[in-house]
Amino acid sequence: MIIVMGNEITDAQIGTVVKKIEAAGLKANISRGIERTVIGAIGDERKLEAEMFTSLPGVESAMHIAKQYKIVSRESHKQNTIVDIGGVPLGGNQIQIIAGPCSVETQEQMDLAAQFTHEAGCRLMRGGAFKPRTSPYAFQGRGAEGLAMFRKAAAKFKLPIVTELMDARQLDAFMEYDVDAIQIGTRNMQNFDLLKAVGKVNKPVILKRGMSATISEWLMSAEYIAAGGNHNIIFCERGIRTFETAYRNVLDVTAIAVLKKETHLPVIVDPSHAGGKAWMVPALSHAAIAAGADGLLVEMHPSPCDAWCDADQALTPAELKKLMGTAGAIAQAIGRTL
Ligand code: PEP
Ligand code: MN
User: Fold this and answer.
1) Range(s) within the chain of domains with CATH label 3.30.70.1140
2) How far apart are alpha carbons 316 and 281 in whole angstroms?
3) pLDDT given for residue 42 in this prediction
4) Mean pLDDT of the chain
5) How far is CA 74 from CA 11, 223, 262, 265, 305, in A?
6) What is the atom index within ligand 1 of the atom nearest the CA of 239?
7) What is the CATH number of domain 83-333?
8) Does ligand 1 have an atom closer than 6 angstroms to the CB of 132?
9) Is the pLDDT of residue 307 over 90?
């Protein structure tokens, strides 16, 4: 960290800054200039916060020079990390498409969804049993019995399952039904207690970007999970909120490139919650793969117009099949497989 002090400072003021640095176990390096005095804090600066210094007399500004996230950063791990989801590798040369309905509705709906997911050539399946709905009066998900339906349907086609965890108290049910990857939704990206809880379990975590979160906040949230011991984390860009109202969210394609540079962990994209309309999903999927995404999380329903949740954005089984073909061609153009 660098602490910048003004030109009319006293030795006592410098001394106070130095003492604070040393109390945190770091060393201070003082560089006196004509107009400014700059103090460098040398050591593990993650223990320091800018506010510890900016409130002191004589201090103009304080800034970190090292990244606040460590385990998830590419600086600490140069190679791409491949996360294993129930035997399916995510983050390697092969792109994975995770498909399935927004929510688990009935056994019959899940049986059909699993069959169509498998027939389209997808190796992973999604489906929400615990649903984060804007209205408390809307369908809230089938809960634990939904997990049972999901597990049963997916088992027939040996599809590993991805589903959202909203509360740490649901973890026992997730373990009972052996959920293969835990999804943390956009609304919980900064639910730090939930992040700490999944940091302690031995299951891959798909961390969606908060709808108004910066990339740095997103990386710090992943660091919360990693700091607990669970390094099997996948980032999922799902669109952010802006002034635009023509679509549900704005897919931040730039974030894919930035994250691939900043972290060694896999990055996937959810084109369904980004666009909010099924007809946008192919275009956004193609853009995501072209920009370097390692996978997609796509909503598909056996009969979209009958879906209990997010009907507008669900692909039909035939549309998913078609997307696998066109997305595969893009993957091939950039030297990857699907
Ligand atoms: C979902 O994937 O079903 C979902 C609710 O997504 P998000 O958290 O991105 O809104
Ligand atoms: Mn949905």
Assistant:
1) 2-64
2) 11
3) 95
4) 97
5) 40, 12, 5, 8, 43
6) 9
7) 3.20.20.70
8) yes
9) yes
Is the Cβ atom of 102 under 6 angstroms away from ligand 1? Answer: yes
Predicted local confidence at residue 7, as pLDDT: 84
Q: Which atom of ligand 1 is nearest to the CA of 131?
A: 5
Q: Is 295 helix (H, G, I), strand (E, B) or coil?
A: strand
Ligand nearest to the CA of 269: 1
Ligand 1 close to Cβ of residue 273 (< 6 A): yes
| Ligand 1 near 20 CB (within 6 A) | no
Within the chain, all domains assigned CATH 3.20.20.70 are found at 83-333
The band of 67, judged by pLDDT with boundaries at 50, 70 and 90, is: confident
Identify the H or E element spanning 19: helix 11-23
**pLDDT tens, position by position, 21-56:** 999 999 999 999 989 999 999 998 888 999 999 999
Q: What is the 3-state secondary structure (H, E, C) of 121-136?
A: CCCEEECECCCCCCCC
Residue bearing the CA closest to ligand 1, atom 8: 185
Q: Which CATH class is domain 2-64?
A: alpha beta
